[in-house]
Amino acid sequence: xxxxxxxxxxTPRHLLVCERSHxxxxxxxxxxxxxxxxxxxxxxxxxxxxxxxxxxxKSVTTDMGEYYLVKNLxxxxxxxxxxxxxxxxxxxxxxxxxxxxxxxxxxxxxLPTGKLILSVDKDTYEExxxxxxxxxxxxKKVMRYSADGSTLMSYFSKHxxxxxxxxxxxxxLRNLQCPVLCSNELQGKPEESCSAQELFEWLGAVFSNVExxxxxxxxxxxxxxxxxxxxxxxxxxxxxxxxxxxEKIIQLLDQLCAYFDEPxxxxxxxxxxxxxxxxxxxxxxxxxxxxxxxxxxxxxVVFRSLDYWLQMAVGANDDCPP
Length: 322
Fold this sequence. Notes:
Blueprint: H1 3-9, E1 14-22, H2 30-35, E2 40-48, H3 55-61, E3 67-71, H4 81-88, E4 95-96, E5 107-110, E6 115-120, H5 122-128, E7 133-134, E8 141-146, H6 152-155, E9 160-164, E10 167-179, H7 196-207, E11 229-244, H8 246-258, E12 268-275, E13 296-303, E14 307-315
């Protein structure tokens, strides 16, 4: 088998960083971690032993806000003084090129700080005449420069612009086998609790609707729930897809913490956030590439005590998450 073919068949590697704290701790960085991850396309939360969402949590879930698709927009309009004055200087504005492949196409991202990130091929780079640095992906160059430099609908009225609402799905998972977790044991403890890594893999199986019982006749998956585990009668799963801002995710995380204000059967809840696979950055201004999978996500496990685990993952060639 040739070397390129072997590399294609290898399981993609990734970097996974885990940290533990308490949401009320004065040095907790959970909000900063969320704000630093600007471009989010899917948010999922899982609540064991829950049949109906509390109204405050449901209200936040169904109010993720509109986002807009602007077609055939010249990039220079994002550095026009009128745009900078109308949107960048008055607050946070997020923009990301749509339907582009980060390792092959020219892409751009406008951060809420007002900085424009470009990832372009060699020809475009030379035409622009900007200063940049070589990308670690596909021989591209990445250029960064600061842009110190109405509504979107009216501002872009001369272009094709469409308003979109995030798509929300709710489901109840029956008889779900869940790993046993201990907030003080990130690495787990034999016969007592599972590790953060094992939980991370288990969540991937749950979100992918994979059977967890490792039946001998299954040709799809031999995965099974890590041990020790417990059987939950039901679990509530909600998934939101779209262009989801960090501020909305923080509101959702706050409500998941407030879920434990009253006694609940659940020992913990999870909040998983996936970034756009073809975003030129992951956290803050860290360069991101697709490679084999475009991994770019984080997961909170919030315990009844409001201790939490935060797991941050990217592809092996990306910078390590903060």
